[in-house]
Amino acid sequence: MMRKYNKYDEYKDSGVEWIGEIPVDWRQSKYKYYYYSSMGNTILKEDLIVDGSIPIYSATESDNIFGYVNNANVILNKNDFVIPARGNSIGNVTLVADEKATCTQTTIYSKKVNNINSKYIYYFLDGLKNYLFNFTRTAIPQITVKQVSNNDILVPPKKEQQKIASFLDQKTAEINEIINKKESLIDYLEKYKKSVITEAVTKGKLGDKYINKDGELVNEIEMKDSGVEWIGKIPDYWDISKMKFLIEVKDGTHDTPEYIIDNNSSVPLITSKHIEADKIKFKSANHISNKDYKIINQRSDVKKQDVLMPMIGTIGNPVIVNTNKKFSIKNLALFKTEHNLVLAKWIYYYLKSEVFNKQVKILTRGGVQSFLSLDVLRNLEIAEVNNEVKIIIINYLDKKTKQINNLIQKTKESIEKYKEYKKSLIFEAVTGKIDLRDYELEGGEELAEHNNSSQTERERISAVD
To answer: In the β-sheet with 65-69, what is the strand arrangement from edge to edge?
Structure first.
């Protein structure tokens, strides 16, 4: 995966197991000899000022601003560090980009006290964060100022620090550009898939053809007004129905029973967080007793080929049950198909369509999170056609969405390869595994940010695919 770069002529043991050998003229040192570190200051939401002059960094995985204030006990300057100290974002270092800033009490800040290139150290901290920021495993993960201060760092000669930083600026920008384009492709494919589904389940349009009442694909068909604003026109031989006339919809909301640790004698409890990529994730589910399961099952008895969809939070993420496994549900709508796979897939694709999304926006009740009531779900308006036509449409959508999903998955896998390549490149550069002293940077030696790259270099990087 790595491109071939030159290596140094001589190496020595760094004395740090996870760093290994380093170039002979590099030094191993401690972070505290170059940076003074301390905890950020307490800032509450009520302290924020809309038009404040001082941006606030907080414990996030990115460099997003928490808000603004006009005064702060801790003042940071450009090229200081902010290191999340609590929660899942621990160790995701931010290099301060503002001339004046501050940070919250959930972060550790670092200010330079000795001569070293902060951009090089930023890449060192970022590239080796899995080794440097081992957090205390408590209910709320956290790291301390002492841990950060005592971290090992490597100190190359000054010119090499700048060369490494500029090299990584350029290469990570190139890789990030490719990743961004691939993420945009995924976004386009997801929208395209939704459009394909919508055209099929409301217009009977399969690609550039329409399906007529005899099941034949034709260039055009007679259309009529559906009488429903968000559905628009439908084929003249189709009808509009309400969900409750097609299928029984049950409420999968209830008070959470006590969880059971012994999974061998209990039943999985599936919620919205266990539905992902058209699958039910049983392994990560909590379990309840068989007694509680029987009580819940009286109202929401899940069977194979039923359809489940979150009613709270991530609405519009349906799944068809493809197992006879016994399990219970919470905060999920249950569409009972009575083992009718055609009906199950018709409802599934409808819930995946833009038409459903439009209805949700109109009918969803506001609040802390989105919520669809059982009454709303039962009264959803849906285009309806005979079973023979449904089967043709479903077969088309099964094939077409599988093709799109395969492309999305391959693109995601490619993105992960680029991310791993970037991690590897940073690690190799900041630990001296590659010699960049004679590497010709595009734009000159003093280039600090590289937002553009040559097509030739992009093609070489694309070899990771």
So the answer is: 65-69, 54-57, 102-103
Residue 277 φ/ψ region, left for φ over 0, alpha for ψ in the -120 to 50 degree band, beta for the rest:
left
360 CA to centre of own chain: 23
Residues 6+ apart with CB under 8 A from 305: 320, 321, 322, 337, 339, 340, 341, 344
At 253, the pLDDT band (50, 70, 90 cuts) reads low
| Rounded Cα distance, 199 and 27, in Å | 64
Measured CA to CA, the distance from residue 196 to residue 185 in angstroms comes to 16
**Sign of the CA dihedral with 394 first, then 398, 404, and 408 last:** positive
Pairing of strands 102-103, 54-57: parallel
Count other Cβ atoms within 10 Å, centred on residue 380: 21
Adjacent-strand bridge partners of 268: 287
Q: How far apart are CA 155 and CA 116, in angstroms?
A: 8
Backbone angles phi, psi at 144, to 5 degrees: -110, 165
User: Do 381 and 240 meet the contact criterion of CB atoms below 8 Å apart?
Assistant: yes
Q: Which residue has the tokens 């964060």?
A: 129
In this structure, is the dihedral angle defined by the CA atoms of residues 336, 338, 339 and 341, taken in order, positive or negative? negative
**Average pLDDT of the chain to the nearest whole number:** 88
DSSP 255-297: PPPPEES-GGGSEEEE-GGGEETTEE--TT-EEE-HHHHHHHH
Coil/strand/helix, residue 2:
coil
Q: What pLDDT score was predicted for residue 365?
A: 56
Q: What is the distance between the alpha carbons of residues 308 and 253, in angstroms, rounded to a whole number?
A: 12
Provide the token pair at 440.
């010709």
Domain annotation for the chain: domains and CATH numbers: 29-155 (3.90.220.20), 239-384 (3.90.220.20)
What is the phi/psi pair of residue 316, to 5°?
A: 95, 30
> Which pLDDT score is estimated for 78?
93
Angle of helix 387-430 relative to helix 118-127, nearest 10 degrees?
130
Secondary structure of residue 154 in the 3-state scheme = strand
CA 401 to chain centre: 21
pLDDT value for 302: 92
- Distance between CA atoms of residues 402 and 386, nearest Å: 24
- Angle of helix 118-127 versus helix 158-203 axis, rounded to 10: 50
CA–CA separation, 46 and 236 (whole Å):
58
Helices 158-203 & 387-430, crossing angle to 10 degrees? Answer: 180
191 Rama sector, left if φ>0, alpha if ψ -120 to 50, beta otherwise: alpha
